[in-house]
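Hi, here's the filled form for the chain we discussed.

Project: internal
Contact: R.S.
Residues: 442
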Amino acid sequence: PDRTSRSSDKATTVEAALVRRTPSWSKTHPRRFIPSNMVMQVEKRLTRSSDWFTLRGSVIIGFGIMFVSVVLLNKQQIYIAKECHSKQEEDFSQAFSLKGSLSRREGPFDMPIKGNKFEIYQPYYDMDESKKGKVLIAPPQDFTESFDTRISWADTIISEKTTRLTNLTTREHASFMYMELVKSLVTGSAFNNAEMSVIPVLGEPPKTKDFSLEDRMGGTDWTYAGDTMTGSARIDNIYSLLIDVIKNNIKGDYIETGVWRGGASVFAKAVIQVLEPNSPRVSYVCDSFHGLPPGERNLDKADKNWDHSAYLEVPSEIVANNFIKYGMLDSNVVFAEGFFNETMPPLSKKINTLSVMRLDGDMYESTVDVLYNLYDKLSIGGYVIMDDWFGFPSKTACLDFFKVHGINPTIIPIDTLSAYWKKTENVDIQYWRYEKSDFIAA
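And the returned structure, exactly as it came back:
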């Protein structure tokens, strides 16, 4: 009895000692941190051992282990809580970022704009990220810097340059090399024997033949591997006209209506990047992205049978990825998706000025949709390029437009299919004709 009493007293003493060594913030609930089974084990050890000091040391060590475990557990809980809070903040931040992205995105005006049959948007922001491809061509600044060095070295080991290149600085020569590279890629001529010439035909799958550089120069075939069917001469024309408007400080953006795979628009964007780095000029890329309209407006008898040609139907994702491939997709690339009678009216309310308009709509109705809505946006000194001039209903639409507005611009041929003119006077557009579909002078 005396031994049991002493043991109980010692156990009580040990418990008190444990409490004394428990952090101050836990003394109000000592049992919460000192399990009863631990006290019982201590009592048993005391009854079996006469070495109180050894036992006391063991208990102190045990308590030390327990204390460290409690502290580590507490720190782990705090860490987990912080991680959860951080994750919640991150999720909230991402959600807020998506919700508020429209107010922070850059561009000429607020987008996207959606109608029943059209959408105006920026693929840079609005395209599904999982569907974006990779950049394959170095940015023009990197390319020209690299080849500037190459040209500077090569010039020291030749006697003289050819007449065409002798007046160019090394940087101008490097920029010219870059544009020639992009031209050869978008037209498909860079692929040489790996390329094919597609024979133009509507309404059925086209046939192919061995690649003809002559046909590609004149744009009389369609490319298989390239990104534009305009041909080299028309690409050179885009280059020349953009040089002119930038050199002469003609204000305004670039627009192409009817883009197919987007190669000509990509090339134009590259020219702007080279000649006017960080340019504010916007590139408008306008197409239905599923072919030409059926011609049901009956504005011209030649407007029939342009639809149902699968080779001419290119999804917008392919066009956007062509911009990405050449490193040309940014916030100043705007897509207007839909037939032109749907996209041109709302687009005309957003565009301030244009310097180059490139029309490739083939049909009468597609041409008047653009001219009546956008021609007054074209700056004096700017240009209109008609990809389809000789032998197309689009030419008839232009001639009717000239006649009713009393203008007679000088038409300059590009090749056997295309032409362009320079705007030299302002025109008061008779928009009522467009509203009534009355395009022919009485």
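Let me know if anything looks off before we file it.
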